[in-house]
Amino acid sequence: MLFEFNNDTPLYRQIAEQIEEGIFTGVFPPGSQVPSTTEISRQFNINPATVLKGMNQLVTSGLIEKKRGLGMFVTSSA
Predict the structure, then answer these.
(1) What per-residue string of b and e applies to 34-68 under the rule 16 or more CB within 10 Å gives b?
(2) What is this structure's pTM?
(3) Which of 32, 39, 45, 64 suits 70 as a labelling partner, its CA being 20 to 30 A distant?
(4) How high is the pLDDT of residue 23?
C-alpha cells in the first residue's frame, strides 16, 4: 500500500481504494482476511479511526465483512 499524505483525496478514501484494488486484482481473494485496522495504522502511522472509516466504506459496499473477534474478510460475492 502506498498513501499520498499531500493528496486531495482523503486518507480514509485512499485506504478503501487500495484494499478494493487488492480485492479486484486477486491480492485478497474471496474469503481471505484483509490487514487489520491496527496493522495498517501502525505500519503507515495513520490514525486507527481513519483506517476504520475506510474499511467501513468497504463493509457498506459489501466487499468485506466483519467477523467479530476475527477481523475483516473479503466476501464471497466480492
Answers:
(1) bbebeebbeeeebeeebbbbbbbbbeeeebbeeee
(2) 0.84
(3) 45
(4) 94
For 11-74, the fitting CATH number among 1.20.210.10, 3.40.50.1700, 1.10.10.10, 3.40.50.150 is 1.10.10.10
**60 in Cβ contact with 20 (< 8 Å):** no
Q: Domain residues of the chain, as ranges?
A: 11-74
Cross-strand pairs, 64: 74
1-49 residue pLDDT tens? 777 777 788 999 999 999 999 999 999 999 999 999 999 999 999 999 9
